[in-house]
Write a structure and sequence with these properties.
The complex is a heterodimer. By secondary structure, chain A is of the alpha/beta class. Chain A has 16 helices and 13 strands. The relative contact order of chain B is 0.09. The chains are: A alpha/beta, B mainly alpha.
Chain lengths: 498, 98
């Protein structure tokens, strides 16, 4: 069920928020042993809030009474939030405050029912670095759901919630949305607040929605976008009602197809599905032209300099002092006893961090520490920031002659669990079509655009289409995505559960 | 191509406050060398006279009044999430003097 459908049923009192919330909870209990998409369950409080919501009966917002799941990096007062890391899991970090985004959703009356699986501190492309183990793809349980927001994507695709929140630093919303057959939006940098969401790479991080339709994405975005005094990077541009942009009309729209995104050796069915999608846009009255984004091949390497550098700085806060893992025995915590004096502070930091962080987080911290260390800063970080400028200019140039740009989300459908986890560079190449938008700070939407053909032992797997727009122009991106969705049926397909 | 030595890995780990076992030092030396090989292709890009991008939407410094405010969480609630002992509203840490 979509937000729009649920809101209609709630408004006409055909269902209650309690029933809707209960049905999501029952679904989680039925399928999540298999999927491992939900890592913290907040069911009792959700039902209490749903009952209260029904009693008050306020239905002015389409999100009122709607149950959702948030990625395990969104702080919510009183709810465990652990970034799927042993660093925060061992004492089940329970934040004493709300993220701005979950607070805004609460104000609209949305019901938080739990937290979804993610790669540790959002670092990964498969949820395999989660301390809770990987999320399984609802379409093929031997495959990844994508990452890092794999739990949110799988939960939406498997109807464990009506919508979900994720974060996209280097593709972490768009890639899992593509792998699981749902809609996911990376917003313009600064369109939504990151306050209260655990940071990864501050010049790149965004928070954003997963939904079953583009209309739902528009509804969520209207509620969560906008300036936040607690996140100084948020833009103060007015927030439109994004649903008003969904006219269904793309006549006269000019679509760019970047030649660098259609590379030799890419998966034929992925290319075929995306080229079919382009024809759908043409049939709707859009015109298509080939464009060039010349620095495309440098976007992912640039990402893997800037992101680990900023990671190494952001992860410094996990020192076992203010929150998180401690190697000290629990019995000694009660008083300032001897245990605290058993080791030096330096030794304490090293123990905390070596025990708390997993291998991918350590890799990125070390790459970042190296790239930022004396003598290397200019060659790595500063050079990457300059290449970022060139990538940004590529997009600015392109948007002088096109309204949106289309590409695949990923070069292949979802891969097998375990296939790439031992090869960090192979995993990084998952981001090959997803890094340029990050460098340019532009919005990009992932929508379902087809399925691979089933083969022996492999069922049909979803394929995602990426729709990119200029900075701050989520409206055009959503209008295009919605018009495409109206003309196709891919987004209505659902994975089967026994 | 830069090859990270095991000594360099030990040095980086120390800067990052990570303690590695010897087998990990070897593993990370190989993996980090591979990753550096991947990112070093950036050196071939001509960036003469190109300004670096630090803030992508062009936003300038934003100022606010120097007043406490924001989320309304009590200091004690923030202290309560520490894994270390709390004495007189302060966290007791291991000694910085060894």
């Amino acid at each position: 069920m979509t937000i729009a459908e649920a809101a209609t049923l709630l408004a006409s009192k055909k269902i209650s928020s309690e029933e809707l919330t209960r049905s999501c909870i029952e679904r989680i209990e039925a399928v999540d042993k298999t999927l491992n998409a939900v890592v913290h369950r907040n069911f009792d409080r959700a039902l209490t809030e749903a009952k209260k919501n029904d009693a008050e009966g306020k239905r002015s917002s389409p999100l009122s009474g709607i149950p959702y799941l948030a990625k395990d990096v969104y702080c919510e007062e009183g709810v465990p939030t652990t970034a799927c890391s042993n660093m925060l899991r061992s004492k089940d970090y329970i934040p004493p405050f709300d993220s701005t985004t979950t607070r805004r959703l609460k104000a609209e009356g949305a019901i938080s029912i739990g937290k979804t699986n993610t790669d540790e501190f959002t670092m990964g492309a498969s949820t395999e670095t989660s301390c809770f183990g990987p999320t399984r793809n609802p379409w093929d349980r031997t495959r990844v759901a994508g990452g890092s927001s794999g739990g949110s994507a799988a939960a939406v695709a498997a109807d464990e919630c009506i919508f979900a929140l994720g974060t996209d630093t280097g593709g972490s919303i768009r890639q899992p949305a593509g792998y699981c057959n749902c809609a996911g939006l990376r917003v313009t940098y600064g369109r939504t607040s990151r306050f209260g969401v655990m940071s990864m790479a501050s010049s790149l991080d965004t928070t954003g929605p997963f939904g079953k339709t583009v209309e739902d994405i528009a509804i969520i975005l209207s509620a969560i976008a906008g300036v936040d005094p607690l996140d100084a990077t948020t833009g103060d541009r007015p927030v439109p009602d994004y649903r008003k942009a969904l006219t269904g009309n793309v006549k006269g729209m000019t679509i760019g197809l970047p030649k660098e995104y259609f590379i030799d050796g890419m998966h034929q069915e992925v290319e075929g599905a995306v080229r079919e999608a382009v024809k759908v846009f043409e049939s709707l009255g859009a015109t298509v032209k080939e464009i060039s984004l010349p620095h495309t091949k440098y976007a992912t390497p640039t990402y893997y300099v800037l992101s680990p550098s900023e990671v190494s700085s952001n992860m410094a806060r996990y020192d076992g002092v203010r929150y998180g893992h401690t190697p000290l025995r629990p019995a000694s915590r009660g008083s300032a006893g001897h245990a605290v004096n058993d080791m030096s502070l330096l030794e304490y930091y090293e123990r905390v961090r070596s025990e708390g962080f997993g291998p991918e987080v350590k890799r990125r911290i070390m790459i970042g520490t190296y790239a930022l260390s004396a003598g290397y800063y200019d060659a790595y970080y500063r050079q990457a920031q300059k290449v970022r400028t060139l990538i940004r200019r590529d997009f600015e140039e392109a948007y002088k002659s096109v309204d949106i740009i289309l590409s695949p989300v990923s070069p292949t459908p979802a891969f097998k669990i375990g296939d790439q986890i031992d090869d960090p560079v192979a995993m990084y190449l998952e981001d090959v079509f997803l890094s340029g938008q990050v460098m340019a700070g532009i919005p990009a939407l992932s929508v379902p655009c087809g399925f691979s053909k089933p083969k022996a032992g492999t069922p049909a797997l979803p394929i995602g289409l990426q729709i990119m727009g200029p900075q701050w122009d989520e409206e055009t991106v959503l209008r295009a995505g919605h018009a495409y969705e109206q003309a196709t049926e891919w987004h209505t397909r659902k994975p089967a559960f026994k | 191509m830069t090859k990270l030595t095991q000594d360099q890995v030990r040095h980086i780990a120390r800067l990052a406050r990570l303690r590695l076992r010897e087998d990990e030092v070897e593993k990370y030396a190989n993996e980090l060398t591979k990753i550096l090989g991947f990112i070093e292709q950036l050196s071939e890009v001509d960036t003469k006279n190109v300004e670096p991008t630090a803030q992508v939407t062009g936003m300038q410094n934003r100022f606010r009044d120097d007043e406490m405010g924001g989320i309304g969480t009590s200091p004690d609630a923030l202290l309560h999430v520490s894994p270390l002992p709390i004495v007189d509203h302060q966290i007791v840490t291991p000694s910085a003097h060894g």
